[in-house]
Amino acid sequence: MCIPKYHDYFEYPEAMSSTIVFNPCSAGLRGDFQPPGDKSISHRAAIFSLLADGVSEIRGFLRAEDTLATLAACVALGAGVSEDQSGGLTITGVGLSGLSAPKDGRLDMGNSGTAMRLLAGVLAAQSFSCELFGDASLSGRPMARIIRPLEQMGADIEAQEGCPPLLIAATAGLQPLAYQSPVASAQVKSCLLLAGLCSGVDISVCEPALSRDHSERMLAAQGAAISVADSCVELTATAVLQPLKMNIPADISSAAFAIVAALIVPASEITVRNISINPTRARLIDALRAMGGEIEVLNTSEQGGEAVADLCIRSSSLKAIDVPPEWVPGMIDEFPVLMIAASLADGVTRVRGAAELRVKESDRISVMVDGLNTLGVTVEEYADGFDIHGHRGFRFNGGCVDGHGDHRCAMSFLVAGLVSTAPVKVSGTEAIATSYPAFIEDMRRLGAGVQV
């Protein structure tokens, strides 16, 4: 059986070592750089281009394992994709009703929860059946949060104990839905918007707090009848999506590691270029500034409907804060590296309302608490958060920690090695390639000492 994978269509990112060591940095980090394209926006650009009538032009698309899995799935569903000499993508869409059944009826989502949840919404509305599956990590992630509302719309989905693989049966059409989501999740919201879009029915989704809004922005740019009020979004049945023409800004979630590194490594000053500062994504900046971090926002503009800016970061003396629960959805991917910053902030940094961290690529609360304990940090773990007892001038113990195959935890522990008494060796780092294949290269360019 031949299952299409992204490396059947696109160049495979360079393999990441399973173990990486970051050495203490005494000279400070210096320089400027632009992180790779935003991961969340790249996923959506591929899927919404597939569903558009006509040719979309996408620049800045993230070349990482997760996003290439999404792009390969779009090709398998009928999209045409070509790349110019400067790396720009041209994606020829098939329209809302023109998808083709993939070869063998299966799609491999790799490690990408975003790909699986968003494409489940698309496939739930199709006249052909399809199976979505992924790697061992993805196979343990909860999908009931999308299955339940899709079933309310009339979808027929089989999943073992609510986890992948998802067997999505053919349907003659879905019903409209007004959904009150129990969690603030952009993936749940986007899944249901896509299901309504592909079925030609009205959808409304209300969340307990506003989650990232890239799907809403992209749909509006494509001419969809969509409105947003507070934390509720309504999509009126739309017949045609216009093609996209966009430059994807750099990913603030990838930039977060260099940002925190520059704050905690003495004598550092770096500039991070062309970063997305979408207000539903930029709460890490608010949190670090509240902790006393010197982060200057420069050259603000708008790019493809998204706010972008350059950030200048200088090493700073940090103090602990209580992170407001309403900030949590806007920095959910950045908590692992925030925990590194909090370890060097005077006082106790408290986080609650972040139970979502337990159902990411790993149980990020547990993984980070275990690793920080190994590195000499006092941490108290709670069901939905943690307390970190930090100290200005603290240095992490050297040693070995396990990233548990979670890209964000692994990169966070490596950042800790820059401010340590001895090198920090991190295993389980292969997954860094799912979001940031150039991480080692970028950190070396800024002055980090790395052994691979």
- Mind summarizing the main beta sheet? 5 strands, mixed
Q: Tell me the name of the CATH class of the largest domain.
A: Alpha Beta
Average pLDDT reading: 94
Report the count of strand segments: 25
CATH superfamily of the largest domain: Enolpyruvate transferase domain
What overall form do the CA principal axes indicate?
A: globular
Number of domains: 2
Q: Do you know the CATH topology of the largest domain?
A: UDP-n-acetylglucosamine1-carboxyvinyl-transferase, Chain
Number of helices: 12
**What's the helical proportion of residues?**
25-40%
Radius of gyration, in Å, reads: 21 Å
Intertermini distance: 36 Å
Features:
globular; UDP-n-acetylglucosamine1-carboxyvinyl-transferase, Chain; 2 domains; 12 helices; disordered N terminus; alpha/beta; four-stranded mixed sheet; 25 strands; five-stranded mixed sheet; 452 residues
Walk me through this protein's architecture.
There is one protein chain. This protein has 452 residues and is an alpha/beta fold. The protein folds into two domains: 6-37 and 249-451, Enolpyruvate transferase domain (UDP-n-acetylglucosamine1-carboxyvinyl-transferase, Chain, Alpha-beta prism); 39-247, UDP-n-acetylglucosamine1-carboxyvinyl-transferase, Chain. Helices cover 28% and strands 27% of the residues. The protein has twelve helices and 25 strands. It has helices at 39-50, 65-76, 113-123, 144-152, 186-199, 214-221, 252-264, 283-290, 335-343, 364-374, 407-416, 439-446; strands at 19-23, 30-33, 55-59, 80-83, 89-92, 106-108, 130-133, 157-160, 163-168, 177-180, 203-206, 225-229, 232-236, 245-247, 269-276, 294-303, 306-314, 318-319, 322-323, 345-351, 378-382, 385-390, 399-402, 424-427, 449-451. The strands form six sheets. Strands 18, 19, 20, 21 and 22 form a five-stranded mixed β-sheet that branches. Strand 12 (225-229) and strand 13 (232-236) form a beta hairpin. The radius of gyration is 21 Å and the shape is globular.
